[in-house]
Amino acid sequence: MSRRHGRSTDRGQAVVVVLAAVVLAVVCTVALARFGASVSDHERAQAAADAAALAGTDGGRAAAQQIASANGAVLTAFTVVDAASGTVLVTVVVGASSATARATRAP
What we know:
With 107 residues, this protein is of the alpha+beta class.
């Protein structure tokens, strides 16, 4: 701290430090919000894929599409893995997340 005529010339430094702290807090908040949204999309996609696969074992692609849509997802793939056992594999997308689920018709 230098002095000129008995006065400090280091005025305003606290403002810079506080401003930097506020900017850092905002950046961290935005990053956490995006991460939270990503996790939420992934969980919603997995739930929709599970439900669509279960519906697809009895109702086929149309039922899987309807359930996926009801859960806010888009059905992107539907595959009958084994027709005898009624095993299907579905893939859905929610936001930027995709999920795959496999289900078999119960005996």
